[in-house]
Amino acid sequence: MTSSSRTAPPAAPGSGPSLAEAVARRRNFAIISHPDAGKTTLTEKLLLYGGAIQQAGAVKAKGEQRKVTSDWMELEKQRGISITSTVLQFDYAGSTVNLLDTPGHQDFSEDTYRTLAAADNAVMLEDAAKGLEPQTRKLFEVCRLRRVPIFTFINKMDRPGRDPLELIDEIESELGLSCWPVNWPIGSGDRFRGVIDRRSGDVILFERAERGRQAAERRLAADDPALGDLVEPELLAAAIEELELLDGAGAGLDLDQVHAGELSPVFFGSAMTNFGVRPFLDAFLDLAQRPVARKGHDGPVDPLREDFSGFVFKLQANMDPRHRDRIAFVRVCSGKFEKDMNVRHARTGKTIRLSRPQKLFGADREVVEDAYPGDVIGLNNPGMFAIGDTLYVGQKVEYEGIPCFSPEIFSWLRNPNPSAFKSFRKGVNELREEGAVQVLYDTDASKRDPILAAVGQLQLEVVQYRLENEYGVPTRLEPLGFAVARWVVGGWPALEAVGRIFNCKTVRDAWDRPVLLFKNDWNLNQLAEDHPGLELSAVAPVVSGVEPIAL
Hints:
The protein is α+β, with helices and mostly antiparallel strands. The protein is about 25% helix and about 25% strand. It has 14 helices and 31 strands. The strands form 7 sheets. It has an 8-stranded antiparallel sheet with strand order 27-24-26-25-29-30-28-31. The chain has a 7-stranded mixed sheet with strand order 2-3-1-4-5-11-6, with helices on both faces.
């Protein structure tokens, strides 16, 4: 029996749901995909079917089309890409759904890693024409490390694409992930008519709707004589034949395997035309994992633990530029959160009163009275929270931190206007705090300019854009010419023990730990040969109880 299915004391009359009831109805997930697979479009359509919005937007809105809900930053609207994470909560069919929206651009994959730390399930989105793509593979490995259940949605079935059996085989052979199609497509491209629900045997046919509205659906039994007039017989016959092949070849749908991340339920559809979105949402809520125990320093913490606990997985500055706000995204892990409650901050030991907790929906916020495991709340952050911080009530709990990954692009960030140094420093500190970019420092204390370290060039452009637009500070970037970073395991004593090293640059990270920068992997390998006793790591050690260096 899973921890989330245990019983808890019933709630007092009129006091709302019991903790066990609230946990049982929560579903929490993030969507992972390669850029342009349709993640933002699918997100909007899930909100549309969940009743959270009345009309879905388009990523690149034209004329009167509304902009997408999940892309709230001005730069996202200009470029038609997702570069920030946000949270979208809605109620549907008796469940409370928390959709953790993630950046779609590969330059922001570290933000996606952090969001996956707060997710109980992941939806892997694939383009039917392209199949598995590099970013999808990379994010899949993160899910596998954390044993996150993965649901696969094969998108863009209304366009010319690859054979569905071939797409399934690619996932199984290249990712080592078993698949169980929950539905199967009838036709593809401009002849995509609908899907066969494998569990019920029903045929679900779709009709195109007005842009941004729900598609009309018709559900019929597989032997309904009306089918002959609604869909081409050869398309239906081909789909049924392929399903018979699947039934003969594979095992059944095992929920234990799904929740262990070993078996992926697969769905087919088209987010753009709304085909298959509702069947996916219905089945996902039925099959997805409820909020589960999270790993703390002293072992797993049950969501039904009576006392509240949660951790900060994201920080975001200036979601409302008019109020210069800073929001900490907190995943509730155990107990019931209540407005105005006093909590302990595990890293500092301080007691904090959480007086204005917010429910987040894209850029929109409203004060929230309570929240339960699986939910995400926003807290005003006057500089006291860092990514990975634990908040708790009662006996001390501290959740595992969230690691930083190796950046690949490094640039000096120059402030050409000394009179704006105060705003420059504030902007750099706040953007580092929220994880927009990693900040490194030269070991020479006289060189005060920070070094920005990023996974992709767009990260640096966004930092410059935000410094100018949110803090009023134009800046200049000067590339350093390095492409590989490694943290020294054992810190400064381990580095000093090996003496002088060559063909790399030593810098400090925000927690005053030594980081070695290399021009290429060849230089890295050469150092490993010269100093076999020096242990290096591509992932930063997890921080706990240490205050970062401020610029």
